[in-house]
Design a protein that fits this description.
single chain; about 500 residues
């Protein structure tokens, strides 16, 4: 009996071909064309699915280039999975942020912030007050879009009644909304930027203060000076109407701010974002049961008993948010929302964007663009300036702020690390260049949305969105002067 021994030779992989500049342009061209088509066909709803499909097809185009150049599908698939893995921490935080927004709406925390914010309105410094109020609201709910569509629209109505400039008011609304959004731990972009750069959320927010707060203060000073000659010609009835609706539907008081104070204390004590936000959401739920019993009683289903009804409503708020009917559609939009389910579309967009970035990186297509940029970016200042320029260019070409954060973040992450720069430098720069400039571009999803709710073209209000204009320039100045550029300390050897 003969026994044959067969030796299986390992399958030899084909040598990889270097990607050409033309190779790198193909996925970019596919992405630009499809994103443009998505904005044209679906308008403001393009981020609710169309943009994700555009990113998927651009990912397939990049994968085909990779296959042509010798990469196996397994390697490309592993790269996509690894890219998605980078977002898992941000996704967990985003889901809990959704729960927190819902419970803070139900508990009266957000309505109380809005109520007290509106009390500081004064016609003699209306522009600055509008900017500040939008900043407070956006920071409390983590959404520049919701702030602009509700408080912003109301402020524009008041400005019209007072005979004030609507374009300046719109600029103040945009400035405040994006200032608050950028510094809120509830904001999607504020969570996304550090996740892409590999930085801690609260360290990222702390590092942003150095460019964001001075920019906002300068913007407020400009708005104050612009309001010196502004005179009131009517009554601010809309503001009174909003505060009246808040008082009719919620118990308003300083004690409602306890959930916010607890979250701020936890952030200052540097508790990780996920448990801190989770605690804030739970406290919001408890505060709702303690202080908003009348509101809850009008919302619950009594068929299963009062206790079960209360418990079910709070539970629903965690996963599906809070909904209220005040008789005013705009106020309903402001005071309804949240829930983990509300974050699923954003999660989908983040995952597809990271897949595209991962394939572009794995196949060497991103490297082609990075090398051409880094040829002129010799210093730290020029590197940060190039990052900001890339973010702005991505906002213009790709027409979406999430892509303007993810793609440049993937492109420059390794270079920042090689130069001994902490990840927070990159995460802050992604926001200074990507998040801030998105509403200034009419065909960007943010610009298109703002135009649809404010009814003013971004090209018109962009001249008065002082915070959004100043912030990127101040970031570049800081970079070249070496102000608050944090470096990785070398490990000490024993």
């Amino acid at each position: 009996m003969c026994v044959g021994v067969y030796i299986l030779k390992p399958i030899e992989e084909k040598p990889l071909k270097s990607a050409s500049f033309f190779d790198a342009l193909i996925p970019i061209a596919v992405l630009i064309c499809l994103l443009g088509a998505a904005v044209y066909l679906f308008g403001d709803d393009s981020s609710s699915g169309p943009n994700q499909i555009a990113l998927l097809f651009a990912t397939f185009a990049a994968a085909l280039i990779g296959l042509k150049n010798g990469y196996t599908w397994k390697k490309l698939e592993d790269a996509m999975i690894e890219g998605i893995t980078l977002s898992l921490s941000a996704i967990l935080i985003l889901l809990m942020v959704g729960a927190l927004i819902g419970t803070w709406l139900l508990s009266g925390t957000v309505p109380t912030l809005i109520y007290y914010g509106l009390q500081i309105i004064n016609p003699s410094w209306f522009y600055a007050a509008s900017c500040l109020i939008c900043g407070i609201v956006a920071m409390s709910i983590g959404s520049s879009w919701t702030t602009a569509a509700t408080i912003g629209v109301a402020l524009l109505g008041v400005a019209s009644g007072l005979g004030l400039e609507p374009t300046v008011t719109a600029g103040a609304v945009i400035s405040g909304a994006y200032f608050g959004d950028k510094l809120s731990p509830l904001s999607e972009t504020t969570n996304l930027a550090p996740a892409v750069a590999g930085a801690d959320l609260f360290e990222h927010i702390h590092h942003m203060l150095w460019t964001t707060v001075p920019s906002f203060v300068i913007a407020l000073i400009i708005f104050v000076f612009m309001g010196f000659n502004a005179t009131a010609a009517g009554e601010s009835g809309q503001i009174d109407e909003i505060t009246s609706i808040l008082q009719q539907n919620f118990n308003i008081g300083l004690e409602m701010l306890v959930p916010l104070i607890v979250l701020l204390v936890l952030a200052i004590r540097k508790m990780p974002a996920f448990p801190a936000i989770s605690i804030g959401a739970v406290i919001g739920a408890v505060w709702a049961l303690l202080f908003q019993s009348d509101l809850i009683a009008n919302q619950i289903d009594m068929t299963q008993g009062e206790f079960v009804g209360y418990f079910k409503l709070v539970w629903t708020t965690f996963f599906d948010g809070f909904t209220i009917s005040t008789g005013d559609e705009k106020m309903d939009s402001l005071l309804s929302g949240g829930g983990m389910s509300g974050m699923l579309t954003t999660t989908w967009l983040i995952m597809t964007a990271l897949m595209f970035g991962a394939i572009m990186e794995k196949t060497g297509l991103l490297d082609i663009f990075v090398k051409s940029i880094l040829k002129i970016a010799k210093s730290t200042g020029s590197l940060i300036a190039s990052t900001i320029a890339t973010c702005i260019g991505t906002n213009i070409i790709a027409a979406d702020q999430y892509i303007a954060i993810v793609v440049p973040g993937r492109m420059f992450k390794e270079e920042y690390k090689k130069r001994g720069l902490k990840p927070v430098n990159l995460s802050r720069t992604l926001e200074d260049g990507g998040t801030i400039t998105s509403p200034l571009i009419p065909w960007n999803t943010c610009g298109a949305y703002m135009q649809s709710v404010l009814l003013i073209n971004p090209f018109d209000y962009a001249l008065y969105a002082f915070f959004n204009l100043i912030n990127p320039f101040l970031a570049v100045i800081y970079a070249y002067l070496g102000i608050k550029i944090l470096r990785i300390k070398p490990k000490q050897t024993a």
